[in-house]
Write a structure and sequence with these properties.
Low-confidence stretches: none
Structural class: alpha+beta
Helix content: 40-55%
Distance between the termini: 22 Å
Largest sheet: 4 strands, antiparallel
Shape: globular
Strand order of the largest sheet: 1-2-4-3
Radius of gyration: 13 Å
Number of domains: 1
Length: about 110
């Protein structure tokens, strides 16, 4: 998938800064080419629960933000993230005391 298309699907308007950030994320995410499609699939699945995948402002990773409007939907989102991680062997790291995860890459 082209970087412009990836940014657009995540809700960004592509520009040089975002394209550079996405390139750094791709280079920093182990096995990115193996999980790229699954990241977009997860983004689409999470939108139903009010959650989403975005570019992190603090680390060169994709972040998953759980912003569900109810505890039940938040729990559903967490379960979907765990299922994604298990099924596609993707290492995710949950930030302490936050509803945020980082996608760190393919876990061989």
């Amino acid at each position: 998938m082209q970087r412009d298309a990836m940014l657009t699907q995540l809700g960004y308007k592509p520009n040089d800064a975002l394209l550079g950030q996405l390139e750094r994320i791709e280079n920093n995410t182990t096995g990115y080419e193996k999980i790229q499609k699954h990241i977009m699939d997860l983004h689409n699945v999470l939108k139903v629960d009010g959650s989403f995948i975005a570019l992190s402002n603090s680390e060169d990773f994709f972040k998953i933000k759980v912003e569900a409007p109810s505890p039940e939907l938040a729990q559903e989102a967490h379960e979907k993230i765990q299922h994604f991680s298990d099924k596609f062997k993707v290492k995710v790291r949950k930030l302490e005391n936050k509803e945020t995860y980082y996608i760190e890459g393919f876990n061989k």
